[in-house]
Amino acid sequence: MGPLSGAKIIEFAAIGAAPMTCMILADLGATVLHVERTQPSGLGLYRPPEFDLLLRGRQSVAIDLKSEAGKGLALDLLSGADAMIEGFRPGVMERLGLGPEVCLERNPKLVYGRMTGWGQDGPHAKNAGHDINYISLTGILDALGPEDGVPTPPLNIVGDYGGALFLAIGVLSALWEAQRSGKGQVVDAAMVDAANLLTTSYHAYMLAGVWKRERGMNIQTGDAFFYCVYKCADGKELAVGAVEEKFYKQMLKGFGFDPADLPPQHDRSRWKEGRKILAERIKTKSRDAWSQIFEGTDSCVSPVLSFDEAKTDKHSRARDGFIDVGGIMQPAPAPRFSRTKAKVASPPPLDGGKNPERVLPLWGFDANAIEKLKKQGAFG
């Protein structure tokens, strides 16, 4: 169905970033088998299984990886896979007897994808952490938040899901290389590495003297009056991002300003003054009234939508940005392909992987083999 049609990937259950990577690969057509835990793990603590959208597009099987039969089943599955993805702390897969050396000996072409917060080595490698911790060591968190307050953590998109995207890139790169060399390899994807790489342009700005170390003095952090979020008359918000001169002029026109009504655009010492003037003007109309005024212009002014509003936004509707899968509206696969179109194959699995006889035949196991694995305790 998608550009990855024919690729077979084994995913060992984790939270956050690793499932996001596997969702993307499944959306793009890969056959992904989600290896679930046999005992409740708390991974689904925050949502019922039908809303665990990161698990969409794949089937699952619960395997007791601590049993010899379960470990043997996992190795059999990996022997027929192109790639695997795990999101445990360093050393866990090795203790289970499923580390890279063992798996690559069994399948020399296997791409072994590893997703962690801190990476496979380094002083923090075995420490727990979350997105806020990973971005706190990269300079990103320090750059966010008000001038006179503490940093405001963003949604866990930068560290967690930035890491997920880089793991997807790494796995696809290794699969491409394996086609030529016939050899697999380990992909060490760390969320802190991904977050660091995402800051490359800001390191360049800082080295060039454009980026100021203190908060309240930079454009992209919402300090500039022409790159900021404002309250409207109805309490809803408007995003203003008119950086370039030609867009800035259209922004001024839409709000009814002459250039002299506001401080010079790039005089950082007067940005607070500019924010105050612009805020007073924007409070005179509702968000939707301003949106109508700026509709179709190159002013870089847009309404701030909620998640619910985003689903019904006319641009998202025109591009089918949200799709119905099993009665649940959710973001559509991306990116888009002209010929091998991406598609969500199925809703998230709801049975917790408790029906191996329905899943494993797709991976070459017949009824007798599955029954034998049951008796040996492979499924707990």
SSE layout:
Elements: E1 8-12, H1 17-27, E2 31-36, E3 59-62, H2 68-79, E4 83-86, H3 92-95, H4 100-106, E5 111-116, H5 131-136, H6 140-143, H7 157-181, E6 185-190, H8 191-198, H9 200-207, E7 227-231, E8 237-241, H10 245-255, H11 271-282, H12 287-294, E9 301-303, H13 307-312, H14 314-318, E10 322-325, E11 328-331, H15 356-359, H16 367-376
Parallel strand pairs: 1-2, 1-4, 2-3, 4-5, 5-6
Antiparallel strand pairs: 7-8, 8-9, 10-11
Helix pairs in contact: 1-7, 7-8
Task: Explain how this protein is built.
This protein has 380 residues and is an alpha/beta fold. It has 2 domains: 246 residues, Rossmann fold (3-Layer(aba) Sandwich); 86 residues, formyl-coa transferase, domain 3 (2-Layer Sandwich). Helices cover 37% and strands 14% of the residues. The protein contains 16 helices and 11 strands. The strands form 3 sheets. A 6-stranded parallel β-sheet has the order 3-2-1-4-5-6, with helices on both faces. Strands 7-8-9 form a 3-stranded antiparallel β-sheet, covered by helices on one side. A two-stranded antiparallel sheet has the order 10-11. Strand 1, helix 1 and strand 2 form a beta-alpha-beta unit. Helix 1 packs across helix 7 and helix 7 packs across helix 8. The protein starts with 7 loop residues before the first strand and ends with a helix. The model has no long low-confidence stretch (mean pLDDT 95).
| Global structural class | alpha/beta
Look at the structure and give the CATH class of the largest domain.
Alpha Beta
Number of strand segments:
11
- Strand sequence of the main sheet, in spatial order? 3-2-1-4-5-6
